[in-house]
Amino acid sequence: MRVIVSFMRTMLRDRLIWFVLIGGALFAAEWAWQQRQNKVILIDLPLVEKLAVQWQAQTKSPPNASQLDALIEGYVREEILVREAARLGLDQQDVIIRRRLAQKVEFFLGDVEPPESPDEAGLKVYFDANVERYSQPEKVSFQHIFANKEAEAKALLAQVGADEANWRLLGQPFMLNREYAGQSQTDLLQLMGGRFTDAVFDQPQVNIWFGPVRSAYGWHVVKLVARSQKQVPEFTSMIEKVANDWHGEQARIAQQAAWEKLRQDYRVEMVPLEGGQ
Questions:
Q1: Quick one: how far is CA 169 from the chain centroid?
Q2: Whole-prediction pTM value?
Q3: Tens of pLDDT along 217-254?
Q4: Domain identity same for 20 and 53
Q5: How many CB atoms lie within 10 A of CB 86?
Q6: Alpha helices in the chain (DSSP H)
Q7: Which of 93, 175, 203, 255 falls between 20 and 30 A from 33, CA-CA?
């Protein structure tokens, strides 16, 4: 018994023991306080005003006393359910919630002080560097006759070259249109495929039937009706759009920089597959 008492006295004189005991007590108190606070829902004036403003925005009239009570009770219900969902880890298992949270953080990453707009000379430099964005591409208008086989298309070319009065009645039925207006290379590429697009845009003459031209559907005899050259607008007519585009690009650059900085704080470790070497 004396040995135990002596040992206890020695331990109580050790400052490290007191440090551990006090630290443990503080940790337990902090944990208990946090648990208690997690069960407390504060309803303050700014929250009530926010609920009232939201109600008025939706109904165009301020809430009365009973409506305000219902709004507060609705907030309390939602807050309790959200806390319980977080406690149960439901936010970690729902793909939609994860994506929404990620989208919100991305929004915050881009929420930075916008840089000062450049002067007109600076915007002109940006315009010149991105002139393709503001240019109207070359476009063509054309008519075509469809055939299933190349030999059939060759015969149609000879026929329509001699008399094109009834060209719409010639060839095979086609699921799309027999004539198109104002088609860019991108438009036509999606519509007919690469070989057809190259053949039409490489055709130097207008109002002459040519072919056969291969498309994603079969063979065609084609007549180029009109061609509009690429058009580059004047900078002065686009200055407002150029300024908006410049600000949008700066926001994207800032968001990317914020993401790269955030990414540096995390380390990715690949867990080897079970049974892997």
A1: 46
A2: 0.52
A3: 999 999 999 999 888 888 888 888 999 899 888 888 88
A4: no
A5: 12
A6: 2-13, 15-37, 45-59, 65-87, 95-110, 120-129, 131-134, 150-162, 185-192, 194-202, 235-263
A7: 93
